[in-house]
Amino acid sequence: MGLFSNFFEKKKDDFNQVINVKSPISGKIIDIKNVPDAVFSQKIVGDGIAIEPTGNEIVAPVNGTIGTIFKTMHAFSIQSNEGIELFIHFGIDTVNLKGKGFKKFIQESNIVKVGDKIILLDLPFLKLNSKSIITPVVISNMEKIKSIKKYSGNTIAGKTTIMSIII
After folding, report:
1. Tens digit of pLDDT for each residue in 27-77?
2. pLDDT of residue 115
3. pTM summary value
């Protein structure tokens, strides 16, 4: 029995797991390199994609646990059930709005499923009062990632796959 269990343990380690990240907001995917903030465009906080939003809800892009939600509600982290850490940051310099234009529906440490509503946006207000509404979606623990396939085109929150990650 020990021989076979060791054989299967090794096979399990060699297995590549694919995690499909859904869009946290409806809109159009843009290259992370085109985000008007060097922290994201130069991949300082991680690699991923960005979305030019058309929707007003930010939803869970993976099944997992909510991490930090900034007091200003412009950004939050989520850890997938597989251990992938995602950081979703609505807009650029939106921290300066001090929470105006955002309404939170979930708390830190809550367990969520893909599509669960996290933040409601006042999109017209945010368009008028933000440097940019481009929303980066980045993987902050890139050391766990073997590869990423990034998609393009239009997205529907909680429905469209924006990245396929192999761990």
Report:
1. 999 999 999 999 999 999 999 999 999 999 999 999 999 999 999 999 999
2. 98
3. 0.90
Q: Domain containing 55: what range?
A: 16-166
For residue 123, being part of any structural domain is answered with: yes
pLDDT for the residue 14: 59
The active-site residue, picked from 89, 114, 118, 139, is: 89
Q: How many CB atoms lie within 10 A of CB 127?
A: 14
In this structure, is residue 7 part of a structural domain?
Answer: no
9 within a domain of the structure (yes/no): no
Amino acid, single-letter form, for residue 28:
K
Does some domain include residue 39? yes
Give residues with Cβ within 8 angstroms of 17, minimum separation 6.
82, 166, 167
7 token code pair: 């054989």
Is 89 one of the catalytic residues? yes
Distance of alpha carbon 102 from its chain centroid, rounded?
17
pLDDT at position 94 over 90: yes
Q: Are 47 and 35 in contact (CB under 8 A)?
A: no
